[in-house]
């Protein structure tokens, strides 16, 4: 209960901060899988249902009409706040996103100056290679404006379409990596195992991974999206857009591609993409991806590549310092056990 009280307070603070950008109305809060305040109307509620895919029976209704009306009266008397949204999302880093369904826009307020600068640098770096939804970056206000693309979520599309999206992603990363080849630096996987040296709760999982990972292998490391999965991709016609670049960091070069498959299996218990991967369905595309890095893709090492990815992903999870890290480690062990059974 105390956890939800703290989260509610943080959400209320965020709500008060961006009131000038919110439409008049009655709002609800959601504090479970995501921290959200949303206007009580069909459009906002439909968007929330797609966003969190969970039951709203425990949402708390909050009537903030009076406070909003005071802001609107002030706004109408000379404020330049023209942007009006009906949904607020507070992410885990404390950044605030305000969604305007009327204008099909999203405005993000960055809590931390260094994170904002890093994000701006990230977008400038990746935009020549990938489609993004970014329309404007305001350094003075520390905000980012994006287009809100209304399209069928990829997770609701047919499996054949999902496979095509994965192929499209690999092709785009092939082109990206080709341009970065001279900028690679190399790291051996032993680095990631050393990062766990003071965490006894993970020893069992590490022991099983050490038997299948070549810790001395040098692997190219390059800036990656680092949180790429179907919910962070938008398909509009034939154009694929990647969103939510806030977690961008240096990772092994095939991290983002395998992360798509991992999330489907680990989060949604759908192992079909991994089955396709292990059966060689993506080999022709992965051969080109590896060639972009001056490497040869070895079909007999498909499982090893995935184990390599897993240790890098696990290191990111542990670094975040989540309070339920022991549960996460147990879930990883279950995933590794199931994956190993499929690979052999």
Describe this structure in words.
- Residues 219-268 form the Aminoglycoside phosphotransferase domain.
- It holds the Pfam family APH.
- This is Thiamine kinase-like enzyme.
- InterPro entries: Aminoglycoside_PTrfase (IPR002575), Kinase-like_dom_sf (IPR011009).
- This protein is of the alpha+beta class.
- The chain has helices at residues 2-17, 42-52, 65-76, 113-126, 159-180, 190-194, 203-210, 255-266, 272-278, 283-292, 302-320, 325-343; strands spanning 27-30, 35-39, 60-62, 87-90, 96-100, 105-109, 134-138, 143-147, 185-188, 218-224, 233-236, 239-242, 249-252.
- Helix 5 runs parallel beside helix 10 (283-292), helix 8 crosses helix 9 (272-278) and helix 11 packs antiparallel against helix 12 (325-343).
- The radius of gyration is 22 Å and the shape is globular.
- Mean pLDDT is 85; it is low at 54-80.
